[in-house]
Design brief:
Keywords: Membrane, Signal, Transmembrane, Transmembrane helix. With about 120 residues, the chain is mainly alpha-helical. It has a domain of about 60 residues. It has 3 helices and no strands.
């Protein structure tokens, strides 16, 4: 739960607890609102503690000269020092032609187009 969601839940709980005058049978809206407010306060405290803990880890790693730890929230991990090569591109029209693809007028001539591009 992030800070914006915690604040939104707190506001929703406050509206339920203090502003709604409805009285549905079997449900106490004031209690539900207070529960939302308590849950949002706990979520805000956990979020702030987690952010402070991550900040402290990064600052300590920088002070010691080691790279910061990888965040567990990242779905894609990429090593910036790794060499990456793009796969060779094949022409879908002429599969045996190799990696070169003609562009512009050459491509139109190769396809047999009778129309010229507008200038």
């Amino acid at each position: 739960m992030g800070i914006p969601l915690s604040l939104l839940l707190f506001a929703f709980g406050a509206v339920l607890a203090f502003a709604v005058n409805a009285d549905p049978s079997g449900l106490d809206l004031t209690a539900v609102g207070v529960i939302f407010m308590i849950v949002s306060c706990v979520g805000l405290a956990v979020t702030l503690y987690r952010d402070q803990w991550r900040r402290r880890l990064v600052e300590e790693s920088i002070d010691h000269g080691t790279p910061p730890p990888v965040s567990l929230d990242d779905a894609i991990l990429v090593d910036p020092t790794m060499q990456v090569e793009a796969p060779p591109h094949q022409d879908p029209i002429h599969p045996g032609a190799g990696a070169t693809i003609a562009t512009g007028h050459e491509a139109a001539a190769a396809r047999g187009d009778r129309f010229r591009p507008l200038r």
